């Protein structure tokens, strides 16, 4: 079976050696990820993965792990509303308090549960970074890298210095971006800023 034919729903029925192979090879994993989201979201994921890898190299973080975090971070941004109900089901089961949080963050909170359940993927660093990629209260380098890459990958077309600053000073870029995100959530979306501690 080619990885093009596999979806996350039938992943666990594969032989465990093949599962391991796919989970360790971004090229084999890409077709599964592409199936879970709109084409534009998939392009964004590829772009985020590349930025993650580039920043990781500059900050002594495993670039392969960073690439994988970028590739997988929006795995729960399903293409239609009906499937988004699945996110609520996951939260209701695993972490019901989060149902009080902003719906826009659900996909980040659910992704680690989803990936563990659908694929037995269990890299804690990557899952933690994905969990924190929308509102980030984690301060490990990989989380900060993914947070910055998601919000400033070139396809977003945002013209500021944050990505450039991140190449030299990750923490500074992170704090600048965090302020910008907090302002956006409060002022533009008019939603509560939700603490995301785990
Ligand atoms: Fe994203």
Ends distance:
38 Å
**CATH domain class name:** Mainly Alpha
The unreliable regions are: none
Number of helices: 10
Helix content: 55-70%
How is the CATH topology named?
Hypothetical protein af1432
- The CATH architecture category equals Orthogonal Bundle
For the largest beta-sheet, the strand count, sense and barrel status come to: none
The gross shape turns out to be globular
Radius of gyration: 16 Å
Please give the domain count.
Answer: 1
Q: At the fourth CATH level, what is the homologous superfamily?
A: Hypothetical protein af1432
List bound small molecules: fe (ii) ion
Structural class: mainly alpha
Please provide the count of β strands: 0
User: Could you tell me the strand content as a percent range?
Assistant: under 5%
Order of helices and strands: HHHHHHHHHH
Mean pLDDT: 91
């Amino acid at each position: 079976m080619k990885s093009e034919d596999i979806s996350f729903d039938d992943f666990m029925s594969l032989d465990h050696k093949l599962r391991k192979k796919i989970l360790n090879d971004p090229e084999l994993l890409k077709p599964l990820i592409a199936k879970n989201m709109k084409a534009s979201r998939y392009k964004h994921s590829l772009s985020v993965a590349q930025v993650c890898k580039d920043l990781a190299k500059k900050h002594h973080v495993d670039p392969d792990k960073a690439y994988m975090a970028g590739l997988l971070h929006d795995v729960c941004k399903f293409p239609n509303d009906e499937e988004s109900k699945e996110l609520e089901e996951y939260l209701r089961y695993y972490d019901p308090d989060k149902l009080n949080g902003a719906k826009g963050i659900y996909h980040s909170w659910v992704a680690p549960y989803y990936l563990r359940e659908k694929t037995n993927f269990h890299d804690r660093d990557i899952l933690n970074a994905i969990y924190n990629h929308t509102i980030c209260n984690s301060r490990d380098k990989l989380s900060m890298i993914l947070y910055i890459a998601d919000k400033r990958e070139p396809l977003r077309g945002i013209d500021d210095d944050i990505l450039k600053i991140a190449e030299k000073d990750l923490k500074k870029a992170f704090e600048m971006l965090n302020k910008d995100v907090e302002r956006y959530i409060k002022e533009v979306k008019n939603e509560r800023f939700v603490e995301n501690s785990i």
